[in-house]
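Translate structure to sequence.
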């Protein structure tokens, strides 16, 4: 009934569109097909799988358990097929109008994405680039189904479906406002511990890497403020005597707009490394190979 030789592969792309868009009309717009054509394809899919696949719930078509079971493998197979077809054709950066979606955590977008955009569009002026946030537990799925082409993140647990390239690590620096009454161009550990601190993180609780390093030394610091973004922390530092630690490249971007004192962190902290991730099915994609090479070269430059 479902042997590949007798199966219309176009139906799988239509199934994927209905699953992703939640309805026949939305899938038709996405695929630039008529609504009757999508409805007819859905009827054929239901016959092929002997299952309704989608049932109406309000204004959406909700997948059945059978549809949910095949959705991931179908998307991964379609992605692999697209990559194989792309690999068979030449990729011309100067001519392509392709959109690339790069997964970037909120904290990692600021230091390098603007320079990456300039570099990419210098070679491929007609491309579109999107910086897309993601949940780590969904990263493999997003890379498999094409919601992301590549992703930048810290070291993640190994997964046979993902490839990765180590991009390097960078030190933390401490930021204090100019004119700080206790900090003037240098910072020792005693002063660091005596002052209050800011953490910038999307996590609602938990220690920073500085706190873990201090704990190994039997020491603690006082975190007086917790916020979600480095820009907010920078603004708070500018109007207070608090200290804030962040990666050197982040600090360089913000310091160019709002100068502060940038100081060496007075305790040993192992800098966290970053990686470039992509799905194994996209390994042979020439367009992504070109983009990966640019990212590796651009992010390897000193901050």
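Result:
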């Amino acid at each position: 009934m479902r042997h590949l030789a007798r199966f219309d592969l176009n139906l799988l792309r239509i199934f994927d569109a209905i699953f992703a868009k939640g309805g026949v009309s939305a899938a038709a717009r996405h695929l630039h097909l008529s609504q009757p054509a999508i409805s007819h394809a859905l009827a054929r899919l239901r016959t092929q799988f002997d299952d309704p696949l989608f049932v109406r719930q309000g204004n959406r078509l909700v997948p059945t358990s059978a549809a949910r079971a095949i959705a991931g493998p179908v998307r991964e197979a379609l992605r692999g097929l697209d990559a194989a077809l792309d690999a068979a054709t030449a990729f011309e950066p100067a001519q392509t109008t392709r959109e690339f979606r790069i997964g970037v955590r909120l904290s990692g977008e600021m230091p390098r994405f603007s320079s990456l955009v300039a570099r990419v569009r210098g070679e491929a002026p007609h491309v579109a680039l999107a910086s897309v946030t993601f949940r780590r537990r969904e990263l493999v799925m997003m890379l498999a189904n094409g919601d992301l082409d590549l992703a930048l993140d810290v070291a993640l647990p190994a997964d046979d479906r993902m490839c990765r390239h180590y991009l390097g690590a960078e030190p933390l620096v401490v930021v204090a406002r100019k004119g700080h009454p206790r900090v003037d161009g240098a910072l020792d550990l005693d002063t660091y511990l005596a002052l209050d601190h800011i953490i910038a993180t999307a996590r609602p609780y938990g220690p920073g890497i500085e706190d873990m390093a201090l704990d190994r030394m039997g020491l603690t610091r006082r975190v007086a403020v917790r916020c979600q973004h480095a820009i907010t922390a920078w603004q708070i530092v500018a109007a207070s005597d608090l200290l804030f630690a962040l990666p050197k490249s982040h600090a360089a971007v913000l310091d160019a707009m709002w100068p502060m004192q940038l100081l060496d962190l007075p305790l040993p902290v192992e800098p966290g490394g970053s990686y470039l991730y992509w799905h194994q099915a996209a390994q042979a994609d020439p367009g992504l190979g070109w983009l990966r090479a640019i990212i590796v070269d651009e992010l390897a430059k000193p901050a």
